[in-house]
Protein: Secreted protein
Amino acid sequence: MPAAPKRGRRAVLAATGLVAVLALTATACDGSADSASDKPDATTSQATDGGGKAEIPADLAGKLKEHGIDVDQWKDGGWKNWDRDKWLSDAKDFVNPVIAGLWKPERMKSAKEANKTVTTKDASAGRGVTDPDPAPVEAQAEKTPYHENAAPVGKVFFDSPDGPAVCSGTVIKDVNHPGKSNLVWTAGHCVHAGGDGGWYRNIMFVPAYNDLGKSEAELGNANPAEIAPYGNWWADWASTSNQWIQGGSETGGDGAAYDYSVLHVKPEQGAKSLEETVGAALDVDFSAPSAAEAAKMGAWGYPAAPPYNGLKMFKCVDVPGRFSLSPSLPTMYRIGCDMTGGSSGGGWFRVRDGKSVLVSNTSIGPADNTWLAGPQLGREAEALYQNMSKTYGGR
Structure:
């Protein structure tokens, strides 16, 4: 969603109900979210060896060696080599060793938005089952501090061949490890390039990024805890759909309806789980409700393309409609929203049984940034989630 939006009429909807529930969810745990002493210092790491360099676990080192990649060179900057023959693409080839100190605040601020765009011409083709375009909705700034209002939401940073990039993500519950989740939900295109590439590198999650919503000028004097109040969390494993790996493209492609990912993360510092540290996590709704059943959905994220700058959290709430790129692909959800690139991967929430649950994530939108579309999460998404939980959740 790279183009600056055309300013026109906005239908601003009050996020009553959904926002209130999300705020309650974000502060409903043991209160650690409000205690500064419980928040790790984002500047340090326990994943180091005696020489102060990040360790690479033996299994990851083995995977690198299988592809002719020298482990020490990788740590010292070899990851910057995006030689096509060595750009790991298969799901089994994901490697993401911790490089302590790589994601410093300035590098985070330099990260560019991850773009996924459907041109207006493509969107108006009306393929499959598609409702009329929704009225544009102007994104509203989330209240600060974020850890009191939307604690599960954060930013996903990664390196691509084009440089540092950023998406959004959400802390989700792990049904097989209750209260101790290390799982993050985001978009597939935030971790893998799709059919034309492979896994991105140095993937990291920062919950409640820029907790106080400070401006760029104010962040010049901010301490690391204000940038990353719960520290930096590296993905030691990532999963996305085979449909995205095989059919995803720079404009979404045939993989757009399956554009989701689950990360298993570990902290640079500390021993507590992500859920324990943040004090919040959301359930995932895999029932794939129809747009009519969902009533209202809200999308949260950190839009980074103009007129936004990626430093602050925003949200849009709207009545969802149906959107389809092809009769052969599952129908996606669509809402009015002017959030731009960088909001990709951000969670979509709906109220179910009185509490907010994650029901989708931002995937694609038009060049004029008037709406967002996200995949329905059904059996395929649940199977991916369960495999991540059972295979990696207890680590």
In short: The radius of gyration is 19 Å. The chain is about 20% helix and 25% strand. The first helix runs from residue 18 to 26. Confidence is low (pLDDT under 50) at residues 1-17, 24-55, 120-126.
